[in-house]
Design a protein that fits this description.
This protein is α+β, with helices and mostly antiparallel strands. The protein has 3 helices and 4 strands; from the N terminus they run αββααββ. The chain has a 4-stranded antiparallel beta sheet with strand order 1-2-3-4, covered by helices on one side. The longest helix is centred in the first third of the chain and has 17 residues.
Length: 106
């Protein structure tokens, strides 16, 4: 007959955090990345426990240069605004050895 031991009340509060296995960490990262992909990001690079995610697109500098030249510099104002506000935004999604996931904006 097996004996089941239950912890005393308050004993779990002082327990050490349990490290997650490699497979659990990879699965947690996969769920995190999948949620970010659904929100419009794309994966630039990745490893077992972290991935670089990118949102947005780079401005087409050739097109903006042609438009700036054709409008005698007037389009340059728009080009500066697009370069300052738009562009690509990168973030790093990672899972630590305890299974905590985080997304840091770079």
């Amino acid at each position: 007959m097996t004996e089941v031991l239950t912890p005393a009340p308050g004993e779990l509060e002082h327990a050490q955090p349990v490290r997650k296995s490699a497979d659990e960490r990879k699965e947690s990262l996969a769920r995190l990345v999948t949620a970010q992909l659904a929100a419009g990001s794309r994966v630039e690079s990745g490893s077992d426990y972290q991935a670089v995610l990118v949102r947005g697109h780079r401005p087409n500098n050739t097109l903006h240069l042609i438009l700036t030249l054709c409008t005698f510099g007037l389009w340059g104002i728009v080009w500066i605004a697009v370069a300052a506000i738009g562009g690509e935004k990168r973030s790093v999604a990672s899972v630590d050895e305890w299974g905590n996931s985080a997304i840091q904006t770079v």
